[in-house]
């Protein structure tokens, strides 16, 4: 289109000039291509949930915007969390990445709020039906799509539960189709949301996307109390925040000696009984002093102190102990009665050994032996035998009876039978008298004196 100037000369419009100028046409083509170029963005359907990737036009979507995406349960409202930079190189879009439906407007956000309230009503009805039918499950949360005809219901149950009757009743009443999904204790805490013992919102509901593995070893490395009430969260499991500083504790603990190890310090040799990882101090029980001292980690392994340079902490502890002993002695003296103290008797140098007393029965027995010997000597004066000494009579020795050897084989049995046959007397021969065994005398009784009157 031509325009007239002030002097009446015709001029060419900008549109016409752009068609004639090839440089201007190239700039317009590049602008349209940049506007229609697709980039991969990350979205979340709820806070602290898993990130899903969709494609969107470059330059039209920014972090924090709301978009409508099509998922397995229908259209849902989602929030954009990741967007590539404007100067990032263009990469090809993977085939499994689907595009967003549209940018969400105020009507979509109002519809999502209405469906959230409707989901709360369905959840209460489901909980009432579960209690009425005594199913043993607890419905945790329900999430509906923008149309309100489909959704997901999370429940918690200790074992397999037949919930078909309850589900059919709720679906017929609210004209909705629900997908039942079982949740564990940590997933229940994430869906319900709340505040923990630290006073802050739950990490799994606010920003944490994955659940870390937390073991009891993590609490031991941080010298925490193993009381379940102090190291467990609202879900009943170990706190997830114990893993946040575990690597730092392990690094700081690596420079400290182990508990039970003997170390040398400026205060003397001792044994490690406690560690303070954050303050980098070690509690040591000294060998030459009952007081326990806290030694910095950088002083562990230094030379043992000398006598002319004692440790000031030990000196003060010894002075405090002496003063406490003096005060206790003064209190005991004030509370004691005014009677003079009785000094304990000094113990004798060496206790005298008690002399063993002989029994009278033994003396009477020896006297009877002596009287019997005198009577025998009077009754037989011309026997020609030497008189016995005045010493005590010897006790008769006890003869041990020999046992016959056992027969161990057939030859021994044959030899024994032959010996027995030869020992038997023949017919008509006199039989040898059998030797009479001597009777045993009592060892403890003395010999009775012979009667001389006969």
Description:
With 454 residues, the protein is of the alpha+beta class. Among the domains are: 2-31, no CATH class; 38-104, no CATH class; 110-183, GMP Synthetase, Chain A, domain 3 (2-Layer Sandwich); 206-253, no CATH class; 262-318, SH3 type barrels (Roll), CATH 2.30.30. The protein is 33% helix and 18% strand. It has 12 helices and 14 strands. The strands form 4 sheets. The protein has a 5-stranded antiparallel β-sheet. Helix 3 (106-132) packs across helix 4 (164-174). Mean pLDDT is 76; it is low at 1-35, 303-309 and 382-389.
CATH topology of the domain at 110-183: GMP Synthetase, Chain A, domain 3
- Overall body shape: elongated
The CATH homologous superfamily of the domain at 110-183 is named K homology (KH) domain
> Proportion of β residues?
15-25%
Q: What is the average of the pLDDT values?
A: 76
Structural class category: alpha+beta
Q: Helix and strand string, N-terminal first? A: EEHHEEEEEHEEHEHHHHHEEEEHHH
Please describe the biggest sheet, giving its number of strands, its sense, and whether it closes into a barrel: 5 strands, antiparallel
Architecture of the domain at 110-183, CATH level 2? 2-Layer Sandwich
In whole angstroms, how far apart are the ends?
Answer: 187 Å
Number of strands: 14
Low-confidence segments: 1-35, 303-309, 382-389
């Amino acid at each position: 289109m031509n325009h007239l100037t002030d002097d009446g000369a015709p001029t060419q419009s900008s549109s016409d000039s752009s068609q004639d100028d090839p440089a201007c046409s190239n700039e317009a083509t590049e602008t349209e291509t940049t506007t229609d170029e697709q980039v991969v963005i990350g979205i979340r359907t709820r806070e602290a949930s898993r990130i899903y990737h969709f494609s969107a036009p470059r330059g039209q979507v920014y972090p924090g915007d709301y978009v409508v995406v099509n998922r397995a349960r229908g259209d849902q409202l989602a929030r954009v969390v990741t967007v590539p930079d404007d100067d990032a190189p263009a990469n090809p879009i993977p085939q499994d990445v689907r595009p967003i439906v549209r940018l969400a407007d105020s009507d979509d956000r109002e519809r999502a709020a209405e469906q959230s309230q409707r989901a709360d009503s369905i959840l209460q009805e489901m909980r009432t039906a579960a209690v009425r039918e005594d199913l043993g499950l607890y419905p945790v949360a329900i999430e509906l799509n923008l149309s309100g005809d489909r959704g997901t219901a999370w429940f918690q149950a200790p074992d397999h539960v037949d919930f078909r009757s309850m589900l059919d009743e709720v679906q017929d009443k609210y004209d909705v189709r629900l997908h039942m999904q079982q949740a564990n204790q940590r997933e229940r805490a994430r869906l319900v949301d709340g505040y923990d013992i630290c006073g802050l919102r739950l990490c799994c509901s606010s920003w944490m996307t994955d659940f870390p593995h937390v073991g009891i070893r993590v609490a031991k490395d941080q010298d925490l109390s193993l009381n379940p009430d102090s190291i467990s969260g609202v879900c009943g499991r170990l706190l997830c925040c114990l893993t946040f500083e575990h690597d730092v504790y392990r690094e700081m603990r690596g420079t400290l000696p182990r508990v039970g190890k003997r170390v040398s310090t400026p205060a003397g040799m001792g044994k490690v009984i406690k560690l303070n990882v954050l303050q980098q101090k070690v509690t040591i029980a000294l060998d030459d002093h009952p007081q326990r001292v806290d030694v910095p980690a950088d002083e562990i392994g230094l030379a043992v102190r000398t006598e002319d340079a004692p440790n000031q902490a030990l000196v003060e502890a010894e002075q405090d102990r002496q003063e406490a002993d003096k005060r206790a002695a003064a209190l005991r003296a004030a509370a004691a009665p005014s009677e003079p103290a009785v000094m304990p008797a000094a113990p004798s140098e060496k206790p005298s050994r008690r002399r063993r007393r002989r029994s009278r029965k033994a003396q009477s027995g020896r006297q009877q032996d002596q009287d019997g010997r005198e009577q025998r000597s009077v009754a037989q004066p011309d026997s020609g035998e030497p008189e016995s000494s005045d010493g005590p009579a010897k006790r008769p020795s006890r003869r041990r009876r020999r046992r016959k050897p056992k027969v161990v084989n057939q030859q021994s049995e044959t030899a024994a039978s032959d010996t027995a046959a030869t020992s038997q007397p023949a017919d008509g021969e006199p039989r040898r008298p059998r030797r009479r065994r001597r009777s045993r005398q009592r060892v403890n009784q003395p010999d009775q004196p012979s009667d001389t009157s006969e």
